[in-house]
């Protein structure tokens, strides 16, 4: 059995960021073999991931990057179980590491991002699993990417909600303010689609049926139900599709009118809204 010194423990702690006792235990089990000890610590993280798979992750941190030319945005949300973990340095550093990997590789999907290899040979997923072993909590990643003529972004003050929004027909307009305003609108008002054409057909059918049932319960004639339901559906579009929503900062304008007022023909092509715990 190899003698495990304080220097050995400190070396492994520096290499992995794991706690002193965890490092000592891993080195003891590995008989002083540092690589084997690192593997043991990694397996510990996987055990925690498996054990806590059903736990709720309602805290965390959102980070965003928009390319210098303003045409591509990346958004990463790393969720954890407790607020205290979301505030520690190595958690925030991991969020930035994941975002940097997304930007560096232009990852198209979450799966691509998690499989990305870092300079140390470990994948993004392995780094996440390692941190789970250190903090003892479940971690969960959400990833969004968006490309457009111009991409705007916004992160809410609680750092748990973020938005990317794509704009087109911007012309020579400075989109800094309007882009931020529209992104803030998306965070606050949670639209389900850009416009009514983007609403899932199943949602439309459900809203029509709900409208009919409400009208029927109010004693309206059967012949009037379809027309009443269509009216309620139009109200649903107004409340729940971005371009038709009233601008929260100025109720006299819809978002479509706000954009057109800023630059003739400007509109939204797509948006990505990510919220931790909501």
TrEMBL record:
Annotated protein name in UniProt: Elongation factor Ts
Family: Belongs to the EF-Ts family.
Location(s) in or outside the cell: Cytoplasm
InterPro entries named in the record: EF-Ts_dimer_sf, Transl_elong_EFTs/EF1B, Transl_elong_EFTs/EF1B_dimer, Transl_elong_Ts_CS, UBA-like_sf
CC per GO annotation: cytoplasm
Pfam family, one: EF_TS
Limits of the Translation elongation factor EFTs/EF1B dimerisation domain: 74-277
Keyword hit for Transcription: no
Lineage: Bacteria, Pseudomonadati, Bacteroidota, Cytophagia, Cytophagales
Record-level Gene Ontology MF annotations: translation elongation factor activity
UniProtKB keywords: Cytoplasm, Elongation factor, Protein biosynthesis
Main function: Associates with the EF-Tu.GDP complex and induces the exchange of GDP to GTP. It remains bound to the aminoacyl-tRNA.EF-Tu.GTP complex up to the GTP hydrolysis stage on the ribosome.
Entry-linked PROSITE patterns: EF_TS_1
Main location per the UniProt record: cytoplasm
């Amino acid at each position: 059995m190899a003698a495990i010194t304080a220097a050995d423990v400190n070396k492994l702690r520096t290499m992995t960021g794991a706690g002193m006792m965890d490092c000592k235990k891993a080195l003891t089990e590995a008989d002083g073999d540092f690589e084997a000890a690192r593997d043991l610590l990694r397996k510990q993280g996987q055990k925690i991931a498996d054990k806590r798979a059903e736990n709720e992750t309602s805290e965390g941190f959102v980070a965003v990057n928009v390319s210098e030319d303003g045409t591509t945005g990346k958004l990463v949300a790393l969720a954890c179980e407790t607020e205290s973990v979301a505030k520690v340095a190595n958690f925030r550093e991991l969020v930035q590491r994941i975002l940097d990997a997304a930007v560096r590789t232009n990852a198209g999907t979450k799966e691509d991002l998690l499989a990305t290899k870092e300079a140390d040979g470990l994948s993004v997923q392995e780094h996440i699993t390692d941190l789970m072993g250190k903090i003892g909590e479940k971690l969960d990643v959400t990833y969004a990417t968006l490309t457009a003529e111009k991409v705007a972004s916004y992160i809410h003050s609680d750092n748990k909600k973020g938005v990317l929004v794509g704009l087109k027909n911007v012309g020579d307009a400075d989109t800094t303010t309007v882009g931020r305003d529209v992104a803030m609108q998306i965070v606050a008002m949670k639209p389900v689609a850009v416009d009514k054409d983007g609403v899932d057909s199943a949602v439309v059918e459900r809203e029509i049926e709900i409208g009919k049932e409400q009208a029927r319960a109010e004693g309206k004639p059967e012949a009037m139900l379809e027309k009443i339901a269509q009216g309620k559906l139009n109200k649903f579009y107004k409340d729940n599709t971005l371009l038709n929503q009233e601008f929260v900062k100025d109720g006299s304008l819809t978002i479509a009118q706000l954009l057109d007022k800023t630059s003739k023909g400007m509109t939204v092509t797509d948006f990505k809204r990510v919220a931790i715990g909501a």
